[in-house]
Amino acid sequence: MSDSRMPAEKEGQNEPEPSSEKKKRSVDLARSIIRNSLTLGLFAIFTVGLIALTFVFTEEKIHAQVRAFEARALKEILPDETHDNSILDTRITLPANDLLATPSEKYGYVAFKNGKPIAVILPAIAPDGYAGKIELLVGIYADGTLAGVRATQHKETPGLGDKIDTKVSDWILQFRGKSLIDPAPEDWGVKRDGGQFDQFTGATITPRAVVGSVYRTLNYFDSHKEELFKQGKIAMETLAREQKND
User: Fold this and answer.
1) Are the beta carbons of 140 and 147 closer than 8 angstroms?
2) In 27, 85, 88, 103, which residue has its Cα 20 to 30 A from 111's Cα atom?
3) Radius of gyration over alpha carbons of the chain, in Å?
4) Which DSSP state fits 174?
5) Per-residue model confidence (pLDDT) at position 35
C-alpha cells in the first residue's frame, strides 16, 4: 500500500498553482513597485526642492554680502563728500571688454556732483596674478586721474601677494592721482621692469599684474569716457523717476 500512495503524493507536489493565486501575487508585486517608485519620486522632488531653496537663500545672502562689500569699496575710493548721488544705485552695464579683461557683462558706477559727472568706478580683472585672476575696482575722475584702486577678490599668497589688500598694506594706495601721462607710459610698470611702481619683497608677479590692469583700465576710460558718463546720466534720471513714483 505504501507503494501505491507515493506516486499520488508526488503528483500532488507538482500540481500548478491556481490562476487566482498567481494573479494575486502579480498584483501585490505591481503595487509594491508602484509604492516604492512613488516613495523614491517624492523623495527626489523633496530633495531637489530643498536644494533649490538652499541655493536661492544662499545666493541672496551672497548677493547682499557682495553688495555691502562693494558699497564699502566704492566709499573708500570716492568718499561721500566727493559726490551727491548714491553711487551704488547709479549703476551702468558694461559689456565684456579686452582692456578690462572682463569675460562677461559687469557693472560700473558713476558719481555726480550738482548734476555733473565727476568720476566713474570701473570693474577690471588682472588675469595674470600669481594665484589666478585679481578682481579690481578702479575709480577715475573726469579729468583722467585715478581716484583710487581696490582689490575686491583674489587668491594671492598670504604674506606676499595679498599686500594688494588694504587690510594688509597700503601698497595699492599709490595709484591715487596717477594718470595715463603721469607717470609716462614707459614708467607704468614695477621697478624691477624699469617702471615707477614698487613691487613686493619676494613677489613681483602680483604687483605687475595689478599695475598692468590699472593702466589698461585708464586706456579704456580714455576711449569710452563720453559713453560712460552718458549712461550714468540716464541711470541717475531713471532712478530719480522711480523714486518719485514711489
Assistant:
1) yes
2) 103
3) 34
4) G
5) 77
